[in-house]
């Protein structure tokens, strides 16, 4: 707990909509943050908040820890294992905090590689939207060695509403993240089917949603996504369909490795492929909740404008 | 609104765990209630609260309205269309309030039959468990002619936490009820798959559930049923698997008539058939959330003790 | 076997494309055939072959046996149980031969009703196309009392290439027929998925089909339907999509009653609903084999011209 | 055609049950064959037929061509890209003929790697069982440059009943092979569901199969596998469940890359995972056709002895 007032020297790689908010919170909490992004225009607002720009990945690896918050496995692999990457650049005993939504397999590979390099590795996956990131109201799922996570606590403190710890193996946080995204996508599909049914039966979708969210489904997943599906408002994307497809694919890959049949996840993956095949890859992922209405002849398939 | 203080003379047919609580609330609110049940032993506690016992269906049909709260289509058809049934016994302009979870097709048939008989018919389907029924905290979905529903308001007042109105056609309330039960069953299956995945990945199911219910799935559906699935506690049944199978079957029948493909509903129906075929018909319906773990080789198929 | 030369006095109800060919074969074999159809214009060609026209169902019920070959359960129920129907008109010990594709439940109901009426009832379901019916080359699945089927043998002789006997309960022939149509529909869907895959991979569908039909799938189901799917030639309908939907629905109803989960059958039913909802009810049922290509963005959904 | 009498100097890597028969045929046709297998005991019978043993992969790469017939992607990658592998050992313009069932992605990778190395690469995937391999009665799907395939014709001549050419891109032969195995697995599942249905309905499975194979499903896929499912004879494995799982997984990976939703393939993959998770990985892959009966409560899940 003494850690809470301690400031750290940290690199932050990946400044998309989530990463920018998170790095901003670290700066506001007094941490010394060096920021790197493949396209450097994203750095400006953070430099104004006091961040130091890094021209290369290696320049973001000179502190106590480096955080990665990137789009997918390929981006993380490139930044970690590539020429001048994290693995070569981070000093012994320094920490790599992986906050991206990546595969369980990559998480295992990172754990092993950092261990061989004498570095520390933890996973800290993230729930929340960009506005929650900017407000320091994220939920974070951590997994890895307790002492390392303890060291990182001042960082998490700056970003979270609440933290959940999932044990000593970093990959546990990745599996939890993927399975939660599966549950959200499952709610999208089920809502889509239910709304196609009642809508074709002559019932107003918003009135129907009001019942759901007043009774059994009062949580934000149903309220927020239910409204998008009721309005068929799939643009602009808060979280793009192609990322949704990726997360379900990674959940299925984990299920494959663990030999866990997941028929609803399989069905969701086919729904995402349909959406992508028909031009919807940049729609919000809630657009899979529009496919049942299309199959029922109510509306056309969701498409990007 | 003047209705609210008016007491009514009403019959109540079907005194299972839900019906008994509901009839008890009507008595407490001062209504004159005549109660009928196929097995008369259920009547005693209500008689002590002031109910008049009916030996036959027809004796429960002499008031302003008669309420049916029965297990399935067959029971309702028998009580309405059978010898000495509601249709023959209810006076002109008296009201039949159908609160059972029945098919959309039967609701249409009841609407037409009561109209031909010069009687009034409304649907008022119910969300809530037996304890909520006994406490007058139900959610009720009404549909039918507004004037008739206005007349019945003193009855609903005694039973509800909140009422939702779904328009002039009684069947709308039945379709909403069935589609909501589909959404709950869908949550059961998805939770079952997610828990099989994380559990086989070495993560504690209760810790996992705590994340879900603190973040995106804060509603009672996930909290209550998630706990049952995490503990694999499928007995005693709050709502039996065979009733769950029936509701998904009726939702699919409505989808068939409206030509709405519902792949998740189809998958759920096969899950319920598996559960029933393997001896689980008297387990709680949340036991379908245990099938994914069985398929993953984690546990045996859920079975009744 | 002595029966083979015996001619019978028989009614034939239902003169669609299959029924007309079958009745024609009976006439050619020397049987005395009285024909009935709801729309009497179908009778003419058969009258020219020597058939006696019946103005009412009852007039077709005066012989040794009456054959029904109708579109669905509703048609059979109307003709059997309706005013002046078979049940009231057939003499004691005369035979009703049900050759339509009907539900297992209706078959049970017919068995019981005819037994109560002192009449005999057997099922004899049919495989083959109209040209095979006209040529007397059908496959017939019989079920029911052996002595009754023996009596009917001269009738079957006139129509079949081969007969299979399925035991004493008439419903067995109905279950076999429905399950076979499920297998054909399953082949349609799988072919559709495989062809969407190889086609999007740049491979010619006809070349691909040539491999299948030369190696493992040499039977007529794959050859005939594979060609339709490869060409996307779904009109004119040899067997309409709405009849395909009906047969899968009846197979699922049988599965429901026997508590047999059939996930592929469930998936097929949703495919048929999609086809019907989007305007394809009069296409050939092989059009469900075009849905995978549509979902893959290769072609539009199959629609009637 | 002049090629037919030409004998070639060829390496053969992978002498499982299929590979041994194929290499034997090459020897009988007079080709000079150098054989390599990871476990060398498989070489003896071929040496007796005149094969030269190779102690290392590189020794099998000194001729006009080298054939690989291995279990999976990993084995092929190891043999091609590993230390002293085919890529390093094959001379310029010599040919690698890939006959294994591998992924489309690996086929693309091999095409590119061999091109960069100045070598030639073709795919020639195989249909048939070990006895057909030993008798030279295989079906072979070829894809790649016509001139290279022409050069290899004397090799194929020794092994095949019939050859099908799928164009210039080697990966086409891999996609065709995977999609055909998908169709077989689909038949296994559908047969399993149909047999569970009729069996629970009191009908004998062998009588039922006799109908199928006499009418619409006369090909070997239904006849051979239908008999195994009817008898629930899943041991010994002709083709192990774990290989079936692999093939469906590779078909789904190809579908993923081409964005083709394949719901039946997804369902099959979950069936294979169930089988593997419950101890059936060494059963014949037709054991997925036993899962429907298990879900229906007819029999226990198939398990290895």
Low-pLDDT residue intervals, each spanning 5 or more residues of chain A: none
CATH topology of the largest domain in chain A: Rossmann fold
| Whole-number mean pLDDT of chain A | 95
Strand content of chain A: 5-15%
- Largest interface, C-beta closer than 8 angstroms, per-chain residues: A-B, 62 and 62 residues
Helical segment tally of chain A? 13
Question: Any guess at the CATH architecture of the largest domain in chain A?
Answer: 3-Layer(aba) Sandwich
Could you state the CATH homologous superfamily of the largest domain in chain A?
NAD(P)-binding Rossmann-like Domain
SSE order of chain A in H/E notation? Answer: EHEHEEHHEHEHEHEHHHHHH
- Secondary-structure-based class of chain A equals alpha/beta
Helical proportion of chain A, percent range:
40-55%
Radius of gyration based on Cα positions of chain A: 20 Å
In the residues of chain A, how many domains can be counted?
2
How would you describe this protein?
Four copies of one chain form a homotetramer. Chain A is an alpha/beta fold. Chain A has two domains: 168 residues, NAD(P)-binding Rossmann-like Domain (Rossmann fold, 3-Layer(aba) Sandwich), CATH 3.40.50; 121 residues, N-(1-d-carboxylethyl)-l-norvaline Dehydrogenase, domain 2 (Orthogonal Bundle). Chain A is built from 13 helices and eight strands. In chain A, β7, α7 and β8 form a beta-alpha-beta unit. In chain A, α8 packs across α11. The longest helix of chain A has 30 residues. Chain A starts with 8 loop residues before the first strand and ends in a 10-residue tail after the last helix. Chains A and B meet through α8, α9, α10, α11 and α12 of A and α8, α9, α10, α11 and α12 of B.
């Amino acid at each position: 707990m003494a850690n809470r007032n301690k400031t750290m020297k940290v690199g932050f790689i990946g400044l998309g909509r989530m990463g920018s908010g998170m790095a901003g919170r670290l700066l506001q909490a007094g941490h010394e943050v060096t920021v790197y992004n493949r396209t450097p225009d994203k750095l400006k607002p953070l430099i104004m908040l006091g961040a130091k720009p890094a021209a290369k990945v290696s320049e973001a690896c000179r502190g106590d820890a480096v955080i990665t918050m990137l789009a997918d496995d390929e981006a993380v692999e490139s930044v970690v294992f590539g020429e001048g990457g994290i693995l070569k650049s981070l000093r012994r005993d320094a920490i790599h905090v992986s906050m991206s939504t990546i595969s369980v397999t990559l998480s295992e590979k990172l754990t092993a590689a950092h261990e061989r390099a004498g570095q520390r590795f933890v996973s800290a996956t993230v729930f929340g939207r960009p506005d929650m990131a900017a407000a320091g109201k994220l939920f974070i799922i951590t997994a890895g060695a307790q002492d390392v996570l303890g060291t990182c606590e001042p960082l998490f403190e700056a970003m979270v509403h609440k933290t959940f710890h999932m044990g000593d193996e970093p990959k546990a946080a990745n599996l939890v993240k993927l399975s939660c995204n599966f549950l959200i996508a499952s709610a999208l599909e089920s809502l889509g089917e239910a709304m196609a049914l009642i809508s074709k039966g002559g019932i107003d979708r918003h009135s129907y949603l009001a019942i759901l969210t007043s009774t059994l489904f009062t949580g934000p997943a149903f309220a927020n996504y239910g409204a998008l599906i009721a309005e068929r408002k799939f643009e602009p994307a808060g979280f793009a369909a192609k990322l949704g497809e990726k997360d379900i694919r990674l959940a299925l890959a984990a299920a494959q490795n663990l030999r866990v049949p997941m028929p609803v996840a399989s069905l969701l993956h086919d729904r995402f492929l349909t959406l992508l095949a028909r031009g919807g890859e940049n729609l919000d992922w809630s657009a899979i909740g529009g496919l049942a209405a299309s199959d029922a002849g109510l509306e056309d398939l969701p498409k990007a404008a």
